Amino acid sequence: MSIDYKLIGKRLKKARIEAGYTQEIVSEKLKLNSSTHISRIENGSAHINLPRLDELCTLYGTTMVYVLSGVSESSNTYLSPEFNELLKDRSPEEIVKA
What we know:
Blueprint: H1 5-19, H2 23-29, H3 36-42, H4 50-60, H5 64-69, H6 81-87, H7 92-97
Helix pairs in contact: 1-4
């Protein structure tokens, strides 16, 4: 299975915009020399390593799970339908006890 850096970049761009940041501001916050690297990550022409991905996700208020898979952990589709069905009528306390 190959990594789709264009898709990861697209999700990062969406998260950046939703967080209200420009590429220039992100570059300043990460102490990069220019916004070119952020642009290249977002268009998929530069590969991102996990530490940098973690920095961006933290800055944007999103998760690596979302960026890598496209599924939000708070989404109904985060778990398979079978798990959702099992858990839908249970309280968090019941789930922890089980």
